[in-house]
Amino acid sequence: MVCPVPGFTLQLKPRDADFSLGKWTATGSIRFMLESRQDPVTPRHVFLWRVLKFMLGAAMLGGFALGIGVLGYHHIAGFTWMDSLLDASMILGGMGPVGDLPDDGAKFFASAYALFSGLVFISVTGIVLTPMAHRLLHHFHLDNDDLDPS
């Protein structure tokens, strides 16, 4: 299988996947984009590219969650599109609702969306912090002769 990103190779094996950039590889489904502790620390440009990809994934998850809220508030609560965007954004950001909900169905949706938004907030935070936490923890497993000058 050819990876669409130049300079990256992607090979799928029966029970495993390799993500490779030169000598930096990672195996396993969870660590698909992260090197193992036996590998040297990736160069800075690879790390920054990884941070960008994780932030893009977090933004996509946040946008998907926001879209669910906007559609729900518009169709279930009967809000205008702008009011739906405002309420969904405020709930997703942890600030609380703005508009009054007209009936029990809308209140049930708002309650479910608030719980869902809390999980999305925790997930997005974890996704954004993963590459930085991994790099920090990776440094703890290195000897001084393993450090990369770049």
Offer a quick outline of the entry.
It contains 3 helices and 3 strands. By secondary structure, the protein is mainly α. Strand 2 (17-21) and strand 3 (24-27) form a beta hairpin.
Structural write-up:
It contains 3 helices and 3 strands. With 150 residues, the chain is mostly helical. The chain has a 3-stranded antiparallel beta sheet with strand order 1-2-3, with no helix packed on it. A hairpin with a 2-residue loop joins strand 2 and strand 3 (24-27). Helix 1 (44-75) crosses helix 2 (81-92) and helix 1 (44-75) packs antiparallel against helix 3. The longest helix is centred in the C-terminal third of the chain and has 37 residues, at 104-140. The two termini are 30 Å apart. The model is unreliable at 11-19 and 23-31 (pLDDT under 50).
Structural class: mainly alpha
CATH class of the largest domain: Mainly Alpha
CATH topology of the largest domain: Helix Hairpins
Hey, roughly how much beta strand do the residues contain? 5-15%
Q: Which percent range fits the helix content?
A: 40-55%
Gross CATH architecture of the largest domain = Orthogonal Bundle
Number of E-state strands: 3
